[in-house]
Write a structure and sequence with these properties.
heterodimer, A: Arc Repressor Mutant, subunit A, Glutaredoxin, 2 domains, 4-stranded mixed β-sheet, B: Rossmann fold, Ubiquitin-like (UB roll), de novo design (two linked rop proteins), 17 helices
């Protein structure tokens, strides 16, 4: 069941469009903000709420990379793997993160603290390599800086 | 706006990185252009005509004439209702970091540009389609929209003129393909962002089937300055036949990676050497993607080419987004090409076969080459695939945009590809 809060937030977004189903991506993002990820139940709830079929909602949910159809940890690390970061040492940062966290891409640490994902260019190319942790951008990375920054996310 | 006009887009930004708020923007002469237009100074058609005369070309990569795009929208009582204006703030072209600056540091300049564009096409509703990762921009744009509503620059009967426009911020759910004009329309409709078959084009049949103009952030940010200072002034800013200033950026192993507002037509060499400080000690320049990943490589012999829409085309490349990615002599060109093609393969929406199938194939070939398993006929296969991605074989420009760097990499760095195959290894590893 969607919460009253979620329903109200979704209503604020759907008001911007002539059709309710246009608010599908907004609804997915709102529910994810409250619950961390989009479960099968959430897909069904959103479908009913917007008058769509669950299949249509799921096809949208699985298309967009910022919508998580699996549970994620308390913090999501998205490391940029695009060309400028690649030139500036992405591979080294990626290996460091794998080693430090003991997980690969798409995986979550056993303590549920971090999920690690690759990301398309974060638009921070003059300060590459870059990554985001949740909604925070971190740039000019090196292994020491990564270690120091991750300490801020418990 | 003020005396120093060479850098209209960036001159009023705060040096400390904070956003120019509404009072600050007004003090710098902001919202004068929309006031003039709305107080009866210019009819919608006259605004479009001025922008056409200014020779403003789209700053999102394609370089389409902005005024011409606006002129395709039906006006008047017979026009379909509503008409939409969309700000494409889905900056996701790898190596591109220019719209972020305009969004974070001068959001009202963009809102005023959107208002003037909206007035010119008689738009009722506007959306800013912003990529989800631009969290600081989202915060600042939201605040600026609220400020503009408070001062009656947005909403019903703006400044008592009778013109009304609502402006909403939409935060994207991700995926590069949303930056494509019609992919973006489907995303705004809450669907998968598969680009549409064209024609019809969005100015006639766009969002929810209504007339829609989609313009890039930097393009719209130029508009208030054109109205304030005139088309002739804007044209005089360029160093070649193209008009205006442009945000130029450099990333890669140069001494000072960064972003600068310069006259359009500034040469690649000047941007690279004077502004980015040249290559880092001990490194040599081998090539560059001049305007994001979808533009053809340029090499040493092209360095004196002016970065504009026409001159770059003469040397087989494009200005694209104006943010260049530099390849140095200690970075593997095959590895770089593999990274680019992997990106395009991953970001294909999966609709057109040459794109989803061919890019995946090329991605696997390049990866195996990097891993030392290259085959004698790999380069023929890659060239064949790139040919299949030509414009017209797919709905959108993603696959053609992948063909450009691949074909030019095969041309300029052929020896490096051959060496990978011959030696069964990447010589840089």
């Amino acid at each position: 069941m969607l919460s009253v809060e979620e329903i109200n937030e979704i209503a604020a977004e759907t008001a911007h469009y002539p059709k309710r189903e246009a608010g599908c991506i907004d609804a997915l993002k709102i529910v994810q903000r409250h619950r961390g990820w989009i479960s099968d139940e959430s897909v069904r709830d959103i479908a009913v709420h917007l008058g769509m079929s669950p299949t249509d909602v799921d096809s949208v949910a699985t298309f967009y990379n910022l919508i998580y159809r699996k549970p994620v940890g308390r913090h999501v690390i998205s490391i940029c793997d695009s060309v400028s970061c690649w030139i500036m040492g992405y591979e080294h940062m990626r290996k460091h993160l794998h080693e430090r966290l003991g997980i690969g891409f798409g995986e979550t640490t056993p303590d549920n603290r971090f999920t690690l994902l690759p990301s398309v260019c974060l638009g921070c190319c003059d300060h590459a390599p870059a990554m985001m942790v949740d909604s925070d951008l971190h740039s000019d990375l090196d292994p020491q800086k990564i270690d120091a920054q991750l300490e801020n996310y418990k | 706006m003020t005396a120093k006009l060479e850098k209209p887009l960036t001159q009023d930004m705060h040096a400390d990185g904070s956003a120019l708020d509404l009072p600050g923007y007004e003090r710098a002469g902001g919202y004068q252009a929309i006031r003039r237009v709305l107080s009866g100074g210019m009819a919608p058609k006259a605004v479009t005509e001025e922008v056409k005369n200014a020779n403003l070309r789209g700053r999102g990569g394609a370089g389409f004439q902005t005024g011409l795009k606006w002129s395709f929208v039906p006006l008047g009582k017979e026009a379909a209702n509503p008409t939409y204006l969309i700000v494409n703030a889905d900056e996701m072209e790898p190596g591109t970091f220019k719209d972020r600056l305009l969004l974070e540091r001068n959001p009202h300049q963009l809102i005023e540009g959107a208002l003037i564009a909206g007035y010119a096409i008689e738009a009722d509703i506007a959306y800013i389609f912003l990529r989800g990762e631009y969290t600081l921009a989202a915060e600042r744009i939201s605040r600026a929209i609220a400020e503009a509503y408070e001062r009656h620059y947005l909403g019903k009967n703006i400044l008592g003129s009778g013109y009304s426009m609502e402006l909403h911020l939409h935060l994207s759910g991700g995926r590069y393909i949303c930056g494509d004009e019609t992919g973006l329309l489907n995303a705004l409709e809450g669907k998968r962002a598969n680009p549409r078959s064209k024609p019809p084009f969005p100015p006639v049949v766009g969002l929810f089937g209504k007339p829609t103009v989609v313009n890039n952030v930097e393009t719209l940010s130029c508009v208030p300055h054109i109205i304030n200072n005139g088309a002739a002034w804007f044209r005089s800013l360029g160093r070649t036949q193209d008009a205006g200033t442009k945000l130029f950026g450099v990333s890669g192993k140069v001494k000072r990676p960064g972003l600068w507002e310069l006259p359009i037509g500034t040469t690649i060499r000047e941007i690279l050497e004077e502004h980015a400080g040249g290559m880092r000690e001990g490194l040599k320049f081998r090539g560059a993607l001049p305007g994001g990943t979808s533009t053809p490589f340029v090499v040493e012999e092209h360095l004196d080419t002016p970065m504009d829409f026409s001159e770059m085309q003469k040397v087989g490349s494009r200005i694209g987004t104006g943010t260049m990615i530099v390849l140095d002599d200690q970075t593997c060109p095959v590895g770089m090409t593999a990274n680019l093609i992997h990106f395009f393969a991953q970001e294909s929406c999966g609709y057109c076969t040459p794109c989803w199938s061919g890019l995946g194939w090329a991605d696997r070939i390049l990866k195996s080459m990097e891993d030392g398993h290259g085959q004698a006929d790999d380069l023929t296969k890659l060239a064949f695939q790139a040919k299949m991605w030509a414009p017209g074989n797919t709905f959108c420009a993603l696959a053609p945009g992948a063909a450009d760097p691949l074909e030019t990499a095969l041309k300029y760095f052929r020896g490096d590809f051959e060496r990978h195959i011959r030696e069964h290894r990447c010589p840089w590893r």
